[in-house]
Amino acid sequence: MFEWLLDPSAWMALTTLTLLEIVLGIDNIIFIAILVGKLPEAQRDKARILGLGLAMLTRIALLASLFWIMKLTQPLFVLFGNEISGRDIILIAGGLFLIYKSTHEIHLQLDFNTDEKKISKKSLKFFPALIQIAILDIIFSLDSVITAVGMADHLEVMIIAIILAVLIMMIASKGISSFVDNNPTIKTLALAFLILIGIALIGDGLDFHIPKGYIYFAMAFSLIVECINIYSSKKSKKQ
């Protein structure tokens, strides 16, 4: 069971996989940060930790049911010349949900009626927020679990990598959430990223693969430009 401890390639796979799980979990953190920001302040830390805990449990549960996941890749029917599997249906449904949710949040961001904003902020309760996080966790987990299966030969290595990645994300999530919540333009940018990720999920479901590297590069570039704008704006206000 622990033979992999003496295998250097297993340790290399563990390190690489942990880093990849963190990268693949960035979209999850962004979604949780935006959703948690709509809760009362006293509940935010609890919802964030529980949300990431759900993500960890979901990924481990999916890893434990590898046989079921492999069956999800078998074609169920053909649509517009593309073979559609159970995995494709989950990705398409998740992409549509993400686009709808992000568009709705952007609409609220652009609504300058403060009374309506207060009502919408109070309208999200703790458990409905967790349910939404859990639904998106399943969709986001598919990519990370499939990546884990493709990179590591030992189930123990995959599970440890997921646990380490989620623990690191738990430490970083509060800072990310505060930053997103305190900067409305960053929040709008994050929502735009989620729309982009939703389109990529639908594309994957329809066998049109958009390389994740392009998406992450666009996200990083836009974020750097926006951070420079925020810094310049704050500096000019001080002056």
TrEMBL record:
* Major site of localization recorded for this protein: membrane
Q: Which residues cross the membrane?
A: 12-37, 49-70, 76-100, 126-149, 155-172, 184-202, 214-232
Instruction: Show the Pfam families listed in the entry.
Output: TerC
> Mind listing the UniProt keywords for this protein, alphabetically?
Membrane, Transmembrane, Transmembrane helix
Asked whether the keyword Transmembrane helix is assigned, the reply is yes
Record's GO cellular component terms: membrane
Tell me yes or no: is Acetylation among this UniProt entry's keywords.
no
Q: How does it sit in the membrane?
A: Multi-pass membrane protein
Compartmental location: Membrane
Task: Write down the superkingdom of origin.
Answer: Bacteria
Cross-referenced InterPro entries: Integral_membrane_TerC
So what family is this one in? Answer: Belongs to the TerC family.
Q: This chain belongs to which protein, by name? A: TerC family protein
Source species: Helicobacter cappadocius
